[in-house]
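Incident log, structure service

09:12 report received: a user says their structure output differs between two submissions of the same chain.
09:20 pulled the input from the user's history:
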Amino acid sequence: MGGDWAELGMIMKIYWSLMLGNVVEWYEFTAYGYQAKYMKANFFSGSSVGVWLGFACTFVARPLGAFLLGWIGDRWGRSVSVNLSIIGMLVGTVGQGCLPTQNCGMTWLANLGLIILVILRFVQGLCAAGEIATISTYLTEVSSKSIISRGIALVYITAAVGFLCAKFMIFVLEGIMGEDDMASWGWRLPFLFAIVPGVIAVIGRRALPESGMFEDEKARNTKGVEVSALTKLKQVFSKYWINVLLGIGVTSTYGVLCYGVGVWIQSFLGTAGLSAGNRMVADLISRGLAIFSTVMFGWASDKLGLFFILGLSIVLTTFISIPLWILIAADPLNFGLVVLGYSLGFGLLQPCVGALTYHFDVELFPTEVRNTGMAITFNVAFAIFGGAAPVIALEAAEASWLGPGIFYMLAGALGTISMCAAFYLERIGMIELAYVRREPYYGPLGCDRRRPAKKVVEDNDVISDDGTSSKGTSQADFISESNKVRAAA
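09:34 re-ran on a clean worker, output below:
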């Protein structure tokens, strides 16, 4: 037990720049959302829908970023990918703090500022997509199997710290400067302040060691087969398309909880009139609870099984989202109810679903396509469900006071259905859900030992453009052999 926690501490010591970079990236990514009212006034002529569409544009870029940086991570290494992502995020963030606004007095310059804002948000989406997938893959491959969930939990913890830092920074600046100065020019500071820790993270990441699994994969590719980006993409969708679809369904729940709850509800409470101080405390409780509980959820997954703990948390999301929203919406000015529904209720659901979703998605793919597969799965889900979540929640709230709660419930239902489908398809031998750590997986469901034996394309096989693996066996032959083994089982 002590050895597991000591190893986790060692990972944090060696890969500190990875953690700091993730904090900075998510601070940068959410600074826009927490300043929605200032961005609305300076760029979108007071349109709430416009400012959230500006937020959502980053998610349009995520599938492309997932493909590009995921392929780079599988082709040249996880270290190369995370270095590119942090540099791109710094450029996109600091650039936003330097833009002309509608208050500059020149229409053409204001319009140019809006166009560049969208471009910079697009760049942030590209880089965030590669960051989250590569860090999750990185930590999976450098952690021992006994602590994988706790290792990947560091991704969620550092993301939560980034969210909290963004919120705290804006809260402090509003207290010092007042809302008028913040609306005039102070909104730029949270974007500009990111440069100091960002540069530190960039310098630290230059010395990151490559993961052992990736190096072993390269060494076993004895024929040195070169795989194009298009071929890698075809490989993911031809061999693992079911895994991709299931991963998207499961990740959709997290996407909605992350942005439909974690970001949009803060905007909702501000519009309803809850004071900035109370919103800050509510978010501090929520993020603080997430930071301290995430490792324990990871521990539970490591001991009881990833599928069991994640499935349980998604089912809970389905059944308690409406009651939690009722607590918040019944009286948004009642701080006690907000803490109960938002800070404690959703505050516990988000880290459990979020941290374990990273692990679930990474496990869906073998080493040679893990970075690409995880990146595509996670970021397509966030592009569809996460990016649209604030806009959908806003429209749902305008249609019915219960609307957002129903929206959250439906997101949980989609995740639940996807988990059930994954369970069934693996039990009949159609797919493999755990390429890194086979057990514990189902845990108390008691299904680990009854899972069917199967032979799939091994982690060290790389499929070239002609469909031949690095061992000279065609992809079709592997699939045929796999089907024979399943039939015999």
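09:41 both user submissions now match this output. Likely a transient worker issue. Closing.
09:42 reviewer note: Residues 148-186 form the longest helix (39 residues). The radius of gyration is 22 Å.
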